[in-house]
Amino acid sequence: MSSLLASLAKSLRSQSQAAREFKWMQQHISQHKHSPDIIHEYVRRRTAGEPLQYILGTQPFGPLNLLARPPVLIPRPETEHWVCKLAESFTPTAQKPISLLDLGTGSGCIPLLLCNLWPQGSVKAHAVDISPHALKLATDNAQLCGMQSSQQDHQTQNTFSTSMANFLAETFPDTATRSNAPFDIITSNPPYIPWNEYLELPRSVQDFEDPRALFGGPSGFNFYHAIARLISKEDILKPSGIVVLEVGHDQAKKVESLMLETGRFRRTEIWSDPWEKQRTVVAHM
Amino acid sequence: MSTPEDIVRLKQLKESELLDEAWTHWKANREQLDETVALLEDPDPTMRSLAVEEIDSLSTNLAELVQTTIPALLVPPSKTSHLGALMELKSGVGGSEASLFLAELLRMYQRLANNSRWHASVVGKNDLENGGIKDAVVEFKGEGAYDSLRWESGVHRVQRVPATETSGRTHTSTVAIVVLPLIEETDSQQDELFNMEDVKLEVMRARGAGGQHVNKTESAVRLTHIPSGVTVSMQDERSQHQNRRRAFQVLRSRLMDLKLTREMEERRSTRRNLVKGADRSEKIRTYNFAQDRVTDHRIGLTMKNLTSVMEGDGIELFIDALKQDNAESAMEAMLEESD
Ligand SMILES: C[S@@+](CC[C@H](N)C(=O)[O-])C[C@H]1O[C@@H](n2cnc3c(N)ncnc32)[C@H](O)[C@@H]1O
């Protein structure tokens, strides 16, 4: 046991982090009634760089405990923070439900947390992704959260639907997305890592998470350009719509100008994350 | 608190029906006693021996009234009786032996909770390989949990020969316990404890570029209540959300604890109490296995048969004695105030 802990500590370069992760592994094993021996396997995988979230198969996100499965991007605490902040910034009602589009939904974390935090019947969410793994995971997560699919009674419940689509393509929005448009809110945490930073990523990110979920083009801004083009189209946003975008540690100002240059917005805001990085650009029509 | 004059004064101090009743009772007993004493002079020996018996029982009654019934009526009802308790146990000196003892204490309190119909849940715990526990945090929910457990705050000392010790030498190890009042999120009292604007919420470690660049688990939070300077860090859970909830719960408990201490000081009640309650580094109890005894150093109470404390209901005797002692101190303070 202590040798396992020691090798974990060496690999994580922190005694206290290793002790916590070791405890979480043990808790997971006893909760799921796995054989205690599996801890060896877990530690071996972890020291080989695999993210703990893939080993345990989950990642808490707000009050939710979402499934995490390789290679779909693991929801980040920075994202958790701004989604909670967005949920608190206003509250839609069942009398006047809103529609939401999430671009590159991955695990589905953004729309699923909003659906959880907002009142039932107040939001109808649609999510797209290019990755079948992501769409499968988002659907499984929706089921885990007790979400209704949009065909069902959306008078009383929040609903969540998905479609496979490439939002960089000229042909976007796809039919399913178009049938849900126009939207009150568009959210996205698109791939934003530029080429030079991609090469420097920690192994647990680079070797285990989907490159298509991370790589934002040579300069990291490809997806923001595509989003700017999308919202310049008529009929995608409602007249008082908002766009909420997560950005990389040094991208907020540039993304803010990209949004303003569309001429669609009256006002923009930049939200910082708890680690004091400018993390979220919010644009109001 | 033993002369009838005191009771008269207290009677004036605090009018209550029950007290009046007890007082009438006392007077009747007292008169009867005087009459019976006269019978000790009776020429008839049977009469005299009856008188002796009668006096014995009357004195017991009087003592009971003066020492228990009346004091209990005079102590103001507890304002904290509805509160649950948050107990933190930390192994101190003695290494793995201390952690084994901690595990035993934890079981003892869980048994106590069961008998008292509280709901006990371990909300945080660090196990060691030897079967011991390095530290633990336990919530006790239910009527009277705080009032009973608050006196468990302090250093608990165990003296015994560890199972692993071949030379048979007795070791001394300690476990430090802190018990705080538990304020439920739904308790209306919590509103008075702090304003949200006065609480600074911070995340703990640096994350470099953060966001998509880093997938390390990061859920530690720290709260600072600016006016009081109380800080709470929580990092036991993978969920940031849960760590935050638990941190707020501990913050509420700490602030409530401060409030209760302050109120105690303001009422200038129980100087003894303060000495007892405030210093949590004080050694309060010894569990001596070789001598098969448990001693509470604050009230000088020793119980033989340590097993009945560790594995039976013995702990309840200590808790009752401490509550009683506290009630008496509160009474003394009242008497001083009325001077
Ligand atoms: C950074 S991840 C974000 C996942 C999730 N929204 C979150 O916050 O954890 C970006 C997601 O965009 C998806 N994606 C990448 N390129 C895409 C494209 N051209 N069209 C649609 N989705 C795409 C990826 O599969 C990935 O799930």
Automatic annotation (TrEMBL), chain A:
GO terms for cellular component: mitochondrion. GO terms for biological process: methylation. It holds the Pfam family PrmA. Keywords: Methyltransferase, S-adenosyl-L-methionine, Transferase. CDD domains: AdoMet_MTases (cd02440). GO terms for molecular function: protein methyltransferase activity. InterPro entries: HemK-like, N5-glutamine_MTase, SAM-dependent_MTases_sf. This is S-adenosyl-L-methionine-dependent methyltransferase. It comes from Crepidotus variabilis.
From TrEMBL, chain B:
This is Prokaryotic-type class I peptide chain release factors domain-containing protein. GO terms for cellular component: mitochondrion. GO terms for biological process: mitochondrial translation. One of its GO terms (molecular function) is translation release factor activity. It comes from Crepidotus variabilis. Belongs to the prokaryotic/mitochondrial release factor family. PROSITE patterns: RF_PROK_I. It comes from the Eukaryota. Pfam families: PCRF, RF-1. Residues 205-221 form the Prokaryotic-type class I peptide chain release factors domain. Keywords: Methylation, Protein biosynthesis.
